[in-house]
Design brief:
The chain is built from 14 helices and no strands. It is mostly helical and 353 residues long. Helix 1 packs across helix 4, helix 3 crosses helix 4 and helix 8 packs parallel to helix 13. The C terminus is likely disordered.
Amino acid sequence: MPSTEEKREVFLFCRGIFAGQNAQLRKKSKVRELLQQHGGRIGPLVSKYGSDSIFNTARHLLEKKVFESNLRAKIEFPDLYEISASRGAQRTASENEAARSEAEALAEAEPTQGESVDPSELDLGTPQTTQTLLERVCFEFGQKWLPQVLEARKWNCQEAVELTKWTKILSKHKTQLPKDAISTGHGPLNDSVVFATERLRHAAVHRLPSTAAGVQQMISSAAKLASALNDTMRAAKIEHLHDALETHVRDMEGNKEFLESRLDQEFKAIDEQRAKLDRRECEAVAAMVSDDNEHQASLGPLLDQATADLLDELPHTSSVATEETTHAASCRPHEQELPNRIPMVLDGNDSDS
C-alpha cells in the first residue's frame, strides 16, 4: 500500500489528468498510457517514487473514485480541505483585495483604436486566446447577418474589428436580426450577455492582472455569447478552455491548501520544539540552582568540622608552649650568676696588676 503522503501527492499532481471522463478509467493500459502522455507533469513524482509506484497509486485512487467526487476526495484527504480560521481570513482578505484591484484596473482601462493581439502570445486558457476566438465568432456572424455593416466600414478581416466594437454593434442591431440568427436556447440577444465580454477585451489588451475567478467569469461570458450567436463549434472550444482553466485552478487551490496545511503543521512542530526547549532551559536553570543550594548547604557542616578539628589541636599547642617556657626559666639562673662572677675576675686581675 502506498503511503498517505504519496497518495496525497499523486492526487494533487494527477487530479487534472484524471478529470472528466478520464476519472472513470480502470484499464491498466489506458491508465498507463495517459500517465505517459503527461510525463512532464508528473516528472517530479516519478523521480521521487518511481513510475510503477505512481501507476499503482493512481489506479488505487481511480478504483476508490477519488478523482470523480470531491466528497470522496475530502474523505480520503481531509487535511487538504481543512483551513484554519486565521488562514481562511487571510485568504478571504487576499481574494477581496485582488478582486478590488482587478475592478479598479478594468475601470481605468479605456477602449483604444486598432489594437489587436499578437497570435504568438496566445496561450491555452488565457483571456487573449478567448478574445481571439470570440472576435472570430463575431466577425463570421457579421459576415452572415450584418454584411451591410462590414461593407460600410470596410471591415474585411477579423483583425479589423476589436471586441468592444462588436458589443456595441450587436447591441445596436439586435432588434434587426432575424429570429434564427440567435440560438433558440438563449431567447433574444440581451445586453447583459453582450457587454459582459468587454472585461475580457480590456484584460487581454491591457494585460490587466486578474484573479482566477475573474478569468473564469470572463471565459464563461465569452462562451455564452458564442453560443448565443449560434457558433456551437467555437462555443465548445471556449467552454473547453473554461473547463481546463477550472481544472488547473482546482489543482492550484488543492495544492495551495496542502502547502498551507503542511506549513501549519511545520509551525505547530516548531512551536512544540520551542516549548520543549523552553522547558529544558527552565529545567537546566532549576537544576543549576538546586545543585548550587545543595553545595552551599554542604559547606556549613564542612566548615563546622574544620573548626572543630582546629579546636581539638589547641591543647597540644599549649602544652608545647608550657614546656618551652619551663625550659627557658630553667636557664635563667645561670644567666643571672654571670654578673657576679665577672667582677670577681676583674678584681683578681686588678690585684695582679
